[in-house]
TrEMBL record:
Residues 20-77 form the HTH lysR-type domain. Keywords: DNA-binding, Transcription, Transcription regulation. This is LysR family transcriptional regulator. Belongs to the LysR transcriptional regulatory family. Gene3D superfamilies: 3.40.190.290, Winged helix-like DNA-binding domain superfamily/Winged helix DNA-binding domain. The keyword Transcription applies. InterPro entries: HTH-type_LysR_regulators (IPR050950), LysR_HTH_N (IPR000847), LysR_subst-bd (IPR005119), WH-like_DNA-bd_sf (IPR036388), WH_DNA-bd_sf (IPR036390). The keyword DNA-binding applies. It comes from the Bacteria. Pfam families: HTH_1, LysR_substrate.
Length: 323
């Protein structure tokens, strides 16, 4: 009759369920390196008799000899080398897992989900993303550029950690927290060869003779531009192409005499750096248009992951007004 307390042999193909101990893995890995039971025992912090007992328990579990004694120490059998190699890899894998967990705790790695309205995505978010990529290459960042309404929905659905924008006017403000940054300046963008760029005394009223490219009715940027015109005693543009696409807006401005009110940060980016830069210009009129203040919006009372917290800290430092 078999003894139920005896470790199952390797015929079961399951060393862990058979009673394989973590200390035996450490000992086999040390034997692989040192070649003597005494030295291996000392390396893992146990006595030689304790190490000998662990090895004596391990061989019946494996079902085959793991080492051969000789005057200079021990020599691992082929089965012993296989187990020792695997033990070494397993221990290294656990060390790597520990390092990863420490990285998560310290914000050195992880996944950050950040959103932004268009202008701040270039002026605030892009420089921080570059900094994070260089300083913390193990942090993965997902960026969503959209309107504040959509970003707020994504935040409350836990699809974003935070976003740069505004709390929507119609939203219940209680679920949100915001670190204010400031107003978002707006510029009137045209193609470089636009007739008004050649007119030294061009005025805002002159702009109404041309098509405008703006957000659909109700969009924050469009409301801002229209309210600004009305505050100056002017009418709203009579010919408007409505679109939410910044790419289509830039293409239309580049190919026609249309005028587009766009975040100044976006205008500067495409004029100074992008391929269309030499073909676009900002009209020197209405230079004080600005959308209402924006900030870094998060869920009130919600704890950020260490990686997201590190990213937000850098973003706050970037966005803080300079003395």
């Amino acid at each position: 009759m078999s003894n139920p307390d005896r470790p199952r042999s390797s015929a079961t193909g399951d060393l862990v369920r058979g009673g394989l101990k973590f200390s035996q893995l450490r000992l086999m890995s040390a034997l692989r390196e040192h070649g003597r039971i005494g030295a291996a025992a000392s390396h893992v912090g146990m006595t030689q008799p304790a190490a000998s007992r662990l090895l004596a328990q391990l061989e019946p579990l494996v079902g085959t000899p793991l080492y051969i004694r000789h005057p200079r120490g021990i020599e691992l059998t082929e089965a012993g080398r296989i187990l020792a190699d695997q033990a070494t890899e397993t221990l290294k894998g656990l060390d790597r897992a520990h390092q990863k967990m420490e990285g998560l705790k310290g914000g050195m790695r992880g996944h950050v989900r950040v959103g932004s309205v268009t202008g701040p995505s270039l002026e605030q978010l892009l420089p921080v993303q570059r900094e994070v990529r260089l300083a913390y290459p193990e942090i993965e960042v997902t960026v969503q550029v959209d309107t504040s309404d959509r970003l707020a929905e994504a935040l409350l659905a836990d699809n974003l950690d935070f976003y740069i924008g505004r709390v929507p006017d119609a939203a219940d403000a209680r679920p949100f927290a915001i670190d204010m940054i400031g107003p978002e300046p707006i510029s009137l963008l045209v193609r470089l060869a636009h007739p008004l760029t050649r007119k030294s005394d061009a005025t805002l009223r002159d702009c109404l003779d041309y098509d405008w490219v703006m957000q659909p009715p109700g969009g924050l940027l469009r409301r801002t531009a229209e309210n600004y015109l009305l505050s100056k005693g002017l009418s709203v543009p009579s010919r408007v192409v409505s679109t939410t696409s910044i790419l289509f807006t830039l293409a239309l401005v580049n190919e026609t005499n249309a005028i587009a009110p766009i975040a100044s940060a976006v205008c500067r980016f495409f004029i100074e750096r992008a391929a269309l830069g030499s073909r676009l210009a900002i009209l020197p009129v209405a230079e004080d248009i600005a959308v209402e203040d924006f900030g870094i919006v998060s869920r009130a009372g919600a704890a950020l992951t260490p990686a997201a917290d590190r990213f937000m800290t850098l973003l706050r430092a970037r966005s803080r007004p300079q003395d």
